[in-house]
TrEMBL record:
Its EC number is 3.2.2.27. It catalyses: Hydrolyzes single-stranded DNA or mismatched double-stranded DNA and polynucleotides, releasing free uracil. One of its GO terms (biological process) is DNA repair. Belongs to the uracil-DNA glycosylase (UDG) superfamily. Type 4 (UDGa) family. GO terms for molecular function: 4 iron, 4 sulfur cluster binding; metal ion binding; uracil DNA N-glycosylase activity. InterPro entries: UDG_Type-4/5, Ura-DNA_glyco_family4, Uracil-DNA_glycosylase-like, Uracil-DNA_glycosylase-like_sf. It is an enzyme of class 3 (hydrolase). This is Type-4 uracil-DNA glycosylase. Residues 31-176 form the Uracil-DNA glycosylase-like domain.
Length: 214
C-alpha cells in the first residue's frame, strides 16, 4: 500500500511538471501505470497521440501489441509496470530530445526506487540508451545484462513491428525469454539451504561416551 501511495503522489507531481518545453504542448502528462510491486517494468520512449489524450501509456496500436506480448508469457498488464523515458508527448510524435530525456530522468529514477523491479525491459533505442549507452538495439536486443542494481533486457519498440512486419516475430521471440530470466533472478535471490548436519555413527558415539566415563 505504501508503494502504491508513493506512486500516486509521484504521478501527481509529474502531472504538474514544467521542467521542459514539452509541458506547453501536452494535453496530459503520462506518468505510467501498473503494479507498484511489479517484477517487470517496461520503459518505452514517449507518449503518442492516444496517450496524450488519455494520460495512459501504450493505449494505441503499439499498446495493443504490447498487451498481447505480456499475455504471451502468462501475465496481464496490471501485473507489470509500464512507463516511458519522457512523460509528455513530443510534438508530431518526433523522437525525444536529449534535454527532454534529462529533464524526465528524476521521475524515472524515483519510479525505479519505488517499484524496485527485478527486470527492466527497455522498448526502443531511447530507453535502451539510458541503460545501455552507446549500444545498438540490433546487437543487444533479447539479451539480459546487469545494469547497476537492475537486470536490463533490451527489446525493439512494439511500434517497430507496425512499420516493419518482419520484426514482429523477433519481438515475440525476445519476449518469450523473459520468464526464464525472471526465474533465474528469483533463484539467485533465494537463501541457500542450510548444510545438512552429519550425525555420528552409533559405534562412534559409543566410543566418544566411553572417553568421558559413561
Amino acid at each position: 500500500m505504501a508503494d502504491a501511495a508513493a506512486l500516486e503522489a509521484l504521478a501527481r507531481e509529474i502531472a504538474g511538471c514544467k521542467r521542459c518545453a514539452l509541458a506547453a504542448g501536452r494535453t496530459y502528462a503520462v506518468p505510467g501505470e501498473g503494479n507498484p510491486n511489479a517484477e517487470i517494468m517496461f520503459i518505452g520512449e514517449g507518449p503518442g497521440f492516444n496517450e496524450d489524450q488519455t494520460g495512459k501509456p501504450f493505449c494505441g496500436a503499439a499498446g495493443q501489441f504490447l498487451t498481447q506480448l505480456i499475455e504471451s508469457i502468462g501475465l496481464k498488464r496490471p501485473d507489470v509496470y509500464i512507463t516511458n523515458i519522457v512523460k509528455s508527448r513530443p510534438p508530431g510524435n518526433r523522437d525525444p530530445l536529449p534535454e527532454e530525456i534529462l529533464a524526465c530522468k528524476p521521475w524515472l529514477d524515483r519510479q525505479l526506487e519505488i517499484i524496485k523491479p527485478k527486470v527492466i525491459v527497455t522498448l526502443g533505442r531511447f530507453s535502451m540508451g539510458r541503460f545501455f549507452p552507446g549500444a545498438t538495439i540490433s546487437r543487444i536486443h533479447g539479451q539480459a545484462e546487469k545494469c547497476g542494481d537492475y537486470t536490463c533486457f533490451a527489446m525493439y519498440h512494439p511500434a517497430a513491428a507496425l512499420h516493419q512486419g518482419s520484426l514482429r516475430s523477433v519481438i515475440e521471440a525476445d519476449m518469450l525469454k523473459l520468464p526464464k530470466i525472471l526465474e533465474d533472478i528469483r533463484k539467485s535471490e533465494r537463501p541457500a539451504a542450510p548444510a545438512a548436519q552429519i550425525q555420528p555413527a552409533p559405534a562412534e558415539t559409543h566410543s566418544q561416551l566411553k572417553l568421558f566415563g559413561f
